[in-house]
Please model this.
Amino acid sequence: MVDILHRVGVHAAAPAAVYDALTTVDGLAGWWTEDTAARGDAASAGGVVEFRFPPVGGFDMEVVEATPPERLRWRVVDGPPEWVGTTVDWDLHQDGDWTIVRFAHRGWAEPGDFMHHCSTKWGSFLMSLKSLVENGAGAPAPRDVQISDWH
Amino acid sequence: MVDILHRVGVHAAAPAAVYDALTTVDGLAGWWTEDTAARGDAASAGGVVEFRFPPVGGFDMEVVEATPPERLRWRVVDGPPEWVGTTVDWDLHQDGDWTIVRFAHRGWAEPGDFMHHCSTKWGSFLMSLKSLVENGAGAPAPRDVQISDWH
Model:
């Protein structure tokens, strides 16, 4: 098992503002992909959030734990086979003027090319989340930063 | 053991151009830190490259393997205790118009906050490497992109 881990800081923002960007369709569409929808409540255990990246597909995340404003866990219930069954953890805490975001995408079976790509791409999307909360302007798909031939 | 893994693509560039940015002081100073120096040859096994990030310190990397233009391995011989003894692998290959960079920083003892930070920061510096080779303009320290309170 190998994990994707990241840490970013969001300046002059409270954890609740970051938590909102992770648990509302409008928030998620502002930094990850504009094509985001929810079945049920994106902020409650049991809700499912559908992230799409036309034309290549996407991910369905079931909310497993939602403890505002500090902790959120998703489990991938549909998407590429490498992702299904993996989990994504968000831990937020305040440190002075900053909200610190600890991110972990765990449960990858193999450290292959796709995992390498997703690691860098998550880092780039976390910078988009930071920018959304700090400045009101993220870079969600399809306007996301291109990192390689795989976009 | 946990690893930091990344993958970026450098467009319209041959592997030799990326390899050059990884094995010359001028290249490394153009995307990682302007305060880069070498003891011996940065392009040959046995050479040591000194990366500094004033005022907080830095890293000394010994070149363990250098196989142009496709493979480079560093071992960290001085720096923060979490880094000493870890290895950094660069694998480059051409795929159409792209040079694909596979990066692995292996040998971390623990997945702590500092490792989370370094994972995101490496991703950001790989985008700086990509930009340097594609456009001639990287974002090395001290002009690097700030990702958090830890810079």
